[in-house]
Amino acid sequence: MNIGIFTDTYVPQINGVVTVVRTLKIELEKAGHRVYIFTVRHPQAVDEEGVFRVASFQFLNEPQHRVGVFLEKEVIFIARSLQLDIVHSHTEFSLYLAARGVCKKLNIPHVHTLHTYYEDYYYYLPLILKFFVQVKPFFRRVFRNQQCIIAPSQKIKTFLDRIEYDKEVKVIPNGIELSLFYEHSEDMFIKMKAFRTHFNIAEDDEVIIFVGRFGIEKNIETLIGNFKRIHERRPKAKLLLVGDGPDRHELQTYAYRLGISGSIIFTGYLQWPDEIKIAYAVSDLFMSASHSEVHPITFIEAMATARPVVAVADISIADMVINEENGYAVEDDTKLWEKALVILENPGVKRSMGMRSEAISKNYSVERFITSMLAVYEEYRKK
């Protein structure tokens, strides 16, 4: 098949959608298909075969993100030359509009993955826009001509039911190349030691890791508040915050006000997967206070690295974090610290939960993901 993937975010950007799109491209090409990416130009991007970029400008207050600007005729001309069999979009913004235009003009079937639970991002809109933009009618209009939406989790399926989307929805959990995070080589241990030295992490420090965007929807201030309770009881504990975002400065200030800034490490963005997997490997457990997850890749990565998980209970992770098996899903986001202490204070519990995490991670293998996605492509290609 000739497959066109449309996305407003792609390498060198770093986020879960990029990971999913890159995984699709690599694995589908391994299976003998031709994959073409339509995305935005980025000042740090390098040329890549099969990747077509449209003009873009920087998103307000988000230097990593770009907004695409395209001429529909040019995009259609490129798409026609590629003889696309199906289009798969991963954005609801400029490149989604480009995908719709291509599919309409060239009569190509179109499937779409909804990666974002937008009700958790409603706060970003100015008050005046909130009056005009209501979630239900807005997204019903956006998806009015969509043939099929792929939901990475039941949480997105429930959202689509609530806005009364009346076309087909297929729930397909995200998958990753798990072997990238299973490494236990001598070289890996050398890199782990170098990582600890670089970030001033002692061998006997207990490390709690979070990986994600530093935005209000990730509830990192509450995570830091939980860590303070842990640190009061276990002074050797450190919190490793991997990523970046608009709230970084405020979070650093908050940690300073709490008197624990010396035990919180802001790494910035790390290279995926080489540096990210080392960060997981030097950590004792993964912890998240986020209520906004859909089907978080970072959770799967941490689990594949045999790390227990302590997180806020949510339908998006119901099949990932199983209480007292591979961690804890906690109803009260201010009480994560209690369960984290159970793990840190009991090496046997930490070890058994880590092993269970690794076993559960196999449910999100790239093989299952690609097989399911190809089945959808074949189904809609024939309609």
Q: What is the alpha-carbon Rg in Å?
A: 21 Å
Q: Low-confidence parts, pLDDT < 50 over ≥5 residues?
A: 123-132
Tally of DSSP β-strands: 14
CATH class of the largest domain reads Alpha Beta
Q: Secondary-structure element order, as H and E?
A: EHEEEHEHEHHEHEHEHEHEHEHEEHHH
- Largest beta-sheet details: 8 strands, mixed
Number of domains: 2
Tell me the structural class.
Answer: alpha/beta
Q: Judging from the principal axes of the Cα atoms, what is the shape?
A: globular
Oligomer state of the chains in this structure: single chain
**How far from one another are the termini?**
15 Å
Description of the structure:
The structure is a single chain. The chain is of the alpha/beta class and 383 residues long. It has 2 domains: 2-175 and 365-381, 3-Layer(aba) Sandwich (Rossmann fold); 178-364, Glycogen Phosphorylase B (Rossmann fold). 41% of the residues lie in helices and 19% in strands. The chain has helices at 16-30, 72-82, 94-106, 127-132, 135-142, 154-162, 186-198, 220-233, 248-258, 274-281, 297-304, 336-344, 347-361, 366-381; strands at 2-6, 34-40, 51-59, 62-69, 86-89, 110-113, 148-151, 168-171, 206-211, 237-242, 264-268, 285-288, 309-312, 327-330. The strands form 2 sheets. Strands 4-3-2-1-5-6-7-8 form an 8-stranded mixed sheet, with helices on both faces. Strands 11-10-9-12-13-14 form a 6-stranded parallel sheet, with helices on both faces. It is globular and about 65 Å long.
Summarize it.
The protein is α/β, with parallel strands linked by helices. Helices cover 41% and strands 19% of the residues. It folds into two domains: 191 residues, 3-Layer(aba) Sandwich (Rossmann fold); 187 residues, Rossmann fold (3-Layer(aba) Sandwich).
